[in-house]
User: What shape does this take?
Amino acid sequence: MLLISALLAPGVVGAQTLRQQIDTIAAKGSVAWIAYQVPMVGGPRRMCCFDSSTQASAGCCGRCQLERSDGVVLTDVEPASPAVSRIVVEAPSEMRVFVRVENRAVSRIRTFSLDCDVDAGGATVTALENVPVNDSVAWLTTVVALPSDAGDSRNRLQVTALSALALHPGTAATDRLIAFARDDTRSRVRSQALFWLAQRAGDEAVRTIGNAIDADPELEVKRRAVFALSRLPRAEGVPLLIQLARTHRLPEIRRQAMFWLGQSKDPRAVDFFEQILKLK
Assistant: This one.
């Protein structure tokens, strides 16, 4: 829930898009937080900050300081500690996106599942109601697509926008991730998009990751794509990693595939390493 230390204010009135509502609030020039709620892609996912007032050993979810803390942990851990008072019957199916504006521009994006308590420290949070999923996808896409370079302060903003985009359900979000993974000129954006595609799986996602391993011009992106394969469900990921380890033309990619196979603890990986050792 949103704690009472955050003073909720009504959202912008009228049939405006999410982008128009955020731009209207940002145009005032002051520091402000905006919050809206949308469905979250299926799966046992909980998002709360790793520097919350509840220790990491307590499980999800603690109390996040909206202004002071930074990182978010994505987990499937059930709340198990006596320190966590909330009883969660089932994994959350919705998330809340927080947007910070200052100097007439978006400066931060934070995303939490609904079972994470968020303390805004007395700041006013403008709540936007009934935001359509595709409207949110469209706005986050514009944030990720903002021009930047390696030293640009927008990098963190774009990474958090991309992770929020990836947690949206539906084909629109998947299509945008695929487009960023294939076509974005920045290697860090392609790498992050590949990682999040692996969380969604699906035939098109697997093809996009495989194409990046074969065709992306930068070795670091290829390495990240191999890591993305390791994040696929094991039924899909392990056979693909074994194939890479056996046949890929680049030694570095074969090494990466073997490394992630070793981390998988999958019986098929053990059989593969046994075969390799017997050939020596």
